[in-house]
Amino acid sequence: MPTLTPSPKKVSLAACEKWAARQSPDAIEMWGIRENGTSSREIAILRLTLSCLGDEPPEIVGFGSSVGFDAAYCEKHPDKKICEAQ
Q1: How far is CA 16 from the centre of its chain?
Q2: How confident is the model at residue 36 (pLDDT cuts 50, 70, 90)?
Q3: Which domain holds residue 67?
């Protein structure tokens, strides 16, 4: 899983959105992963922003980071398109 930059010292919606948009392309791709296997920058920014504000990221965030992660995710979610090739 790509490392994120340090979160804002003062957490606010604006600060978290700005922080989220400045993450690395690898982090954006991983945080934007969808159940069909594609990635969305907009989804990544939303998930990162919500995480910065204290929400837990969806289970799929991290897919592609390791074979073990992918296998565990697909074991729990065998019906997802991203798991077809697993």
Answers
A1: 15
A2: very high
A3: 13-83
- Please say if the pLDDT value at position 86 is more than 90: no
Please give the model's pTM, rounded to 2 decimal places: 0.88
Q: Identify whether 1 is part of a domain.
A: no
- What letter would DSSP give residue 39? B
In whole angstroms, how far apart are CA 60 and each of 12, 39, 40, 86? 25, 11, 13, 14
In the chain, the N- to C-terminal Cα span, in Å, equals 19
